[in-house]
Amino acid sequence: MRIKESSTPSKAGEIALDPLPARFDVAVIGGGVVGCAVLRELSRYRLELLLLEKEADLAEGISKGNSGVIHAGFNVPTGTLKAKANIDGLYRTYKLARELGVPHRRTGKLVVALDASDRPRLEELKAQGDRNGTPGLEIVDESAIRSLAPNVRGLWALSSPHTGIISPYEFTLALAACALANGARILAGTPLTGVAIRPEGYLLATPRGRFTARWVVNCAGLWADDVAALAGIEGYRIYAYRGEYLIADREAGSVLDIPVYPVPARDDSFLGVHLTPTLHGNVLLGPSSAYVEDKGDAATTRAMMDRLKAEAFELVPALRRFPFIHAYAGLRPKLTDPQGKVKLADFIVEESRLRPRWVNLVGIESPGLTAAPSLAAMIADIIGAREDIALRPDSVAERPAVPAFADEDDAGRAARVAADPDWGEMICRCEHVTRAEVLAAVRNPFGAVNLDAVKRRTRCGMGRCQGGFCGPRIVEILQAEGVPVERIAKRGPGSELFYGRNKP
Asked: Does pTM surpass 0.90?
């Protein structure tokens, strides 16, 4: 059928895993923020759980190419699942971030009108947000804009005080760590290659073996349609839209500490070039929005970089003073045909009529990050409506925050170095990341054995030199930790850094 008869053993150098049971109550497909939120929510119950992620690390797909905005819910049409999950997720995300020790900040946001003719559009957005239940929306004048964000140009703005910022990959990894602490099993680098229907559930084929699950929750993002098709569920079609970003040096945070958006197009096809501060002081310009045929096409272009800067400088002229240190692109899964007239489609969250106990989450684009905890609660409700699931009295709900070495005061740093000299060796000078932090990342339960995985956990390579100083040192640490040099990669198989040897 669709099952491949053979499976390949784990390769040398992979982090050893305890033997996995062959049967699970629920298998989650996809290790982005939605999949990990679902896994974490279900881990509160007495269920045997498995998550399969095809990439070498969690948060490697849509979730890493994300602006990291906690959306307040006024940009989504009233009455849609997007609106419901966004508003509910707004409160859940802040609560989860606090419980799991994930850095975040309630910044507020401005949607800025440079021209008086855009004032009616701001009124429409406010009315929509009021209907959705977005708290605290207010249209403010130029004087108030200057008070909230002194370097932003504009005649009018919609102020959203409950919008915030968060690291999307740190949030994803924290959700996964919480689920892991509750007994869930997570396999990265493990694509789903085949599905067969059995009386006891779904037989799932992977390169690491076969697993049976009574329920399958498809959170595969850009590939959710392909994963559904493996189970014979046809009819979904996902279109990939590429969003390009520019990252300004962290000193740019001195002129912008609040997300700023232009007035969006009336058909909501494109929200305009955003200016989003990060928790570490950088400012993101973007994303753009362009349909691409290849779901893996994360290229950046000079023409779009020029456009991002031009539009950003119109809103915040002071950004011209700062260098840009990196460009990247993310991909979002849309359900609308790029040639069609409808530019906005709602989230799809449904149990398949053809395949009972198979739940598909399809077209989860923005505000998917904010909506993820709400969507996870929906999945628990879907399963709970079909069978009795009991809460685990001993489930882990909180995770203590561990400050980065760079965020410690002098006394805290001295104490760490005194306890372990690895805290005293700087691996990344730009972001002040120590050997101890890199070792913790490499030894994590998910197997962070490539440079991007280390970067997401430590910020190594995110500074001005973009890994020029820390890259070779991370390679040395990976080798010392048992990763063969020919398998050391930027992001996983296909991006290896070294080829062949010039001496024995």
From this structure: yes
